[in-house]
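Work package 3, deliverable 3.1, input record:
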Amino acid sequence: MSWVNAVIQGVLLGGLFALFATGLSLAFGIMRFVNLAHGDLAILAAFLAVSTTAALDVNPFVTLLVIVPGFALGGYVLQRHVFNRTMGADPLPSILVTFGLGVVIQNTLLEHYSADSRGLDAGAIETRSARITDDISVGWFPLLTLGVAVVVLVALQLVFSRTRSGRAFRATADDPATARLMGIDDRSVYARIMAIAFATVALAGVFLGIRQTFGPSDGPVTLLFGFEAVVIGGLGSLWGTLLGGVILGVAQTVGNQIDVRYDLLSGTLFGHLIFLAVLAFRPQGLLGRKGRA
Amino acid sequence: MTPILEVRDLAAGYGDFQALFGIDLRVDEQETVAVIGANGAGKTTLLHTLAGLVPATAGSARFAGEDLLAVPHHRRVGRGVALVPEGRHLFPSLTVEENLLVGAHTRRPGRWDRDRVIEVFPLIEPLMSRPADVLSGGERQAVAIGRALMANPRLLLFDEVSLGLAPVVVKGLYAALPTIIGEGTTVLIVEQDIGQALAVADRVICLLEGRISLEGTPADLERSQITAAYFGSERP
């Protein structure tokens, strides 16, 4: 029964990974933009939630009302005035700029908050769970995380497939020069995509902070999990991102279940192995389209 | 007739390479003008400069009284200048219907909409929900023209409509032209098929190495004149 439990917990953990990966998936899928500061932005959001909860004496969930719109605005402005200048056939400038941004965020956090680990206290929801059998119980908070991830991805999918803006986003992803001929300003599309990406990473960061403790240098490993989820699921596919997150989550919890004493088979490593297997045998990802690398 | 497009002394190019020199061009409202010329004569560059894909390096272009060159290129379709690009350039991951809807992105008012496009190109109707990248060349060209019409342009620029298509398909596409012109659209056509160009145009302009080498109505121009202007042959 503990195996079933491991899978269920893995699926729930996958919700958090999917939430992390959404922004990466969007930025890469639509504008071929690799944001290496993505993980650090999540940690930044978690720390901002720490300060806001302390200052206003509110639940971390309430801070989302400020942090998510704030991040969206920040993403829009950064893309419009900084990232757009790095876009082009050569991916290196954007990688260097976002890598630098990540270093700046990490060091600013270290300076301001010290290297101590922090956590966010969301109250009773963190420990409550629904008991399904004697061996299996589902925590309310992990369930909420997965639910939020699904809602975010379904909402984005609807925007992309049903709305005028969504069509403009996809047309720009296909062919920015022709999109301009249709009257679509690709630079403005990129700024709006980055706003969405930043909003989702802020959400993911605060949820991460509620789930576990975090420190200023936790960004890169978070980024790694996000990238793994995107690659497993398939580049440019939002459903793939959800699937990738869930598979990575299950791989990690099941990996932990196999043997916790034996370091080599720790959950994280097991997740990496699944990621490498996907890269080796299905490089376009499980739901990715072939030939659009 | 009032001119809708007035180009004066226009020059344009790519980096160090200059493709157009001192182009003077006047297109009247509801006129159909064909631009002919050999490969590399600058025909596509002329259309791209008007659509904004290539920046002009000198000269001016006034469209409906406005300085067209000062309008950022993604805004030009909103002012009424639409391009049907060479090679169709449909959005491959979008369906045919979505391609048409993206053509209407600017929400420019006018007579063209989804149903009117289907009326003119009935072959599109059964394809509406197909992804654009599975269509045949002729179907793609029809969708590309339909997509440009969805923007309700005042000036429609056609770039090499017949390129790579079977003659019977080209004939079908050109059959739609009178309807398009009948809606009050001014048309500027770049065409390598001289016969086709002479058949549909009110006026023909021949480009040679980036300069206008000949201009006139199809009735006035002799074949030998066109050949000389096309190849630049004042050979002995």
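The first helix of chain B runs from residue 43 to 51.
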